From TrEMBL:
Family: Belongs to the short-chain dehydrogenases/reductases (SDR) family.
Ketoreductase domain mapped to chain residues: 10-203
InterPro entries, alphabetized: KR_dom, NAD(P)-bd_dom_sf, Peroxisomal_Beta-Oxidation, Sc_DH/Rdtase_CS, SDR_fam
Pfam families the record matches: adh_short (PF00106)
SUPFAM superfamilies: NAD(P)-binding Rossmann-fold domains (SSF51735)
Name of this chain's protein: SDR family oxidoreductase
Lineage: Bacteria, Pseudomonadati, Pseudomonadota, Alphaproteobacteria, Rhodobacterales
Length: 306
């Protein structure tokens, strides 16, 4: 059976599309017949500098395959700049149908050594950027009574990771942002979903590979190319997923995952209310089997990608 994705002629904004996962997603949408706004400022992994070259390379690839694309080099991390990204789509293609919030930077540090500037920079790009670009497109989606958002979250936020307090907080915030968008814009037939991508890219190539065990792990990770995330992003924005919203998915090589979302696990009741001592005596023993272990993403996804 052939599924009609309904993306031919649609206009898709992909932020951070100058390379890696963003480029793969932009190409995936172009292959499905969509017109692409390639947004990328061409900065380093830490967010420094800027160049139009990465976006131009992505456009050349799309056009070589017969697709259409325009370039925006505006930053997602500024409200006025985000408006220009959406306006780029309007100026070039006359509409916006899909927003993929993928742009990101990394400034890793152990929490007690993290500089406030590194906190602000990462939150500005990931969380604020996702809000700014999504919010800029919202009036258009509302007017046309249809639209789709795909946001990039991370298992660093959903599960946890060491040395990434800024990144983890921003990525978990994006999951909550997506759910709020899904709830607030449901009446306008606008959908919002998240992907926690697994891919070997410049955001993961700093993983050490010194020992034989580390080298073997990196070899496995390198199989998870950015392209393995594109089909999920394209699907979530397509007509085939028209009833899917407010969800969190992951793509890991040939595996797909649907994530749970926080819900109550245990309950305890006291007719006379609670004191700290009574909580220790009665509630904690009742809750203990449900306490979440202190794991990082690698502990939960402990098996090799298949």
């Amino acid at each position: 059976m052939t599924v009609d994705l309904g993306l031919t002629g649609k206009v898709v904004i992909v932020t951070g599309a100058g390379g890696g996962i963003g480029r793969a997603i932009a190409q995936g949408f172009a292959d499905a017949g969509a017109k692409i706004v390639i947004n990328d400022i061409g900065a380093s992994l830490g967010g420094e500098g800027g160049s139009a070259s990465p976006a131009q390379e992505t456009r050349a690839m799309i056009e070589a395959a017969g697709g259409e694309a325009a370039i925006s080099t505006d930053s997602v991390a500024d409200w006025d700049s985000a408006q220009k990204i959406v306006q780029c789509a309007m100026d070039n293609f006359g509409r916006v149908d899909v927003v993929v919030n993928n742009a990101g930077i990394l400034r890793d540090a152990i929490f007690h050594k993290m500089d406030p500037s590194d906190w602000r920079s990462v939150v500005d790009v990931h969380l604020n950027g996702s809000f700014y670009v999504s919010r800029a497109a919202a009036p258009l989606f509302r007017k046309q009574e249809v639209g789709a958002y795909v946001h990039m979250t991370s298992t660093s936020g959903l599960i946890g990771n060491v040395g990434q307090a800024n990144y983890s907080a921003a990525k978990l915030g994006i999951a909550a942002l997506s759910k709020s968008i899904a709830l607030d814009m449901k009446r306008y037939n606008v959908r919002s979903n998240c992907i926690a991508p697994f891919a070997w890219s410049r955001m993961t190539n700093s993983i050490p590979a010194n020992s034989p065990e580390e080298k073997a792990r990196v070899a496995k990770l390198q199989q998870m190319t950015p392209e393995t995330n594109a089909p999920l992003a394209v699907f979530l924005a397509s007509e085939a997923a028209r009833d899917v919203t407010g969800q969190i998915f992951a793509a890991r090589l040939n595996e797909l995952f649907l994530f749970s979302q926080p819900r109550p696990l245990r309950s305890a009741h006291s007719d006379t209310g609670w004191t700290p001592e009574l909580i220790a005596e009665r509630a904690l023993p009742a809750f203990r089997s449900g306490l979440i272990p202190q794991e990082v993403s690698g502990d939960v996804f402990a098996w090799d990608p298949i």
